[in-house]
Amino acid sequence: MGSNKLVTSIAVVLIFLPAIAMAKDITVGDDNGWKLNFDYQAWAKDKVFQVGDTLVFKYQAPNHNVYKVNGTEYQNCTKPTGNVGLTSGNDRIPLQTTGNKWYICGVKDHCAQGMKLSITVADKSSAARGIIFSGYQVFMVAIFAILAIVV
């Protein structure tokens, strides 16, 4: 009887472990970094951005920079007044709230050439709910159900 409780406890931990998403650093553009001639919208399309994650913009300073902008400034490629751009070449932006976020390069016409990023940040709990019944969890339930029957 005690071994069944142990098996059940292990199963519960393994089933929900992927749902307990850890915050992660997300390098914009992956190995390409923040540069011209790269489609950031295509790159972001299949990514999941969650509260607690950090965007990392890697680029050669002073060739580029990063400005956090609103939707209109993003569409028009306009640097916001009074907003100082990030210029380190290894800029880290923590995603602290849900919703749409917009970023542009403010150097020359880089934004107009496509050096801009639009993402939607999800709440950790809503993103976790989406993976509750992933193939991994179904597989783990089946394994532990068999173990519970055998043990």
UniProtKB/TrEMBL annotation:
GO biological process terms on file: response to symbiotic fungus
Superkingdom of source: Eukaryota
Membrane topology: Single-pass type I membrane protein
Major localization class: membrane
TM region(s), chain numbering: 131-150
InterPro entries in alphabetical order: Cupredoxin, Phytocyanin-like, Phytocyanin_dom
Alphabetical list of PROSITE patterns matching this protein: PHYTOCYANIN
Compartment annotation: Membrane
Keywords recorded for this protein, A-Z: Copper, Disulfide bond, Electron transport, Glycoprotein, Membrane, Metal-binding, Signal, Transmembrane, Transmembrane helix, Transport
GO CC entries: plasma membrane
Range of residues in the leader sequence: 1-23
A single GO molecular function term of this UniProt record: electron transfer activity
All copies of domain Phytocyanin, residue ranges: 24-123
Protein name: Phytocyanin domain-containing protein
